[in-house]
Design brief:
The chain is built from 4 helices and 2 strands, in the order H-E-E-H-H-H. By secondary structure, it is mostly helical. Strands 1-2 form a two-stranded antiparallel sheet. The radius of gyration is 17 Å and the shape is globular.
Length: 118
């Protein structure tokens, strides 16, 4: 009985570990982008607005998305979505009620693995 419990625990841990690593890296990259790079950019280049929308010239989460897609393939979408949703809600004021935004997040994070498929 103990061995079956151990197998279940390690099976759950083997699924949650990559989710935590990839989503944590994405959240950290988003935090650095919005809390460090964006204010520095506004100090150095105050005129970086296109049609009254603030643009970030250095966007670190894109690199995390590409690296994760390269190493994990289609599973990277499942690994990154919790971090993408959390960081979008916290840093970009994404509403919890808009399904359109979540569909666009799934499409955005789903396109990166398709570029590395043979």
């Amino acid at each position: 009985m103990l061995s079956s419990t151990r197998v279940t625990y390690f099976a759950i841990l083997s699924v949650l570990r990559p989710v935590a690593v990839h989503s944590g890296a994405l959240f950290l990259a988003m935090a650095i982008t919005w809390l460090v790079i964006s204010p520095l950019q506004k100090l150095i280049l105050p005129q970086t607005k296109v049609q009254n929308i603030s643009a970030t010239l250095i966007y670190l989460p894109f690199g995390i998305k590409i690296i994760s897609a390269f190493f994990e393939g289609w599973r990277s979408v499942l690994y990154l979505l919790p971090g993408a949703v959390l960081s979008s809600v916290l840093f970009m004021d994404l509403s919890w009620a808009t399904s359109y935004a979540y569909i666009s997040l799934c499409i955005s994070y789903g396109t990166a693995p398709s570029s590395f498929q043979p």
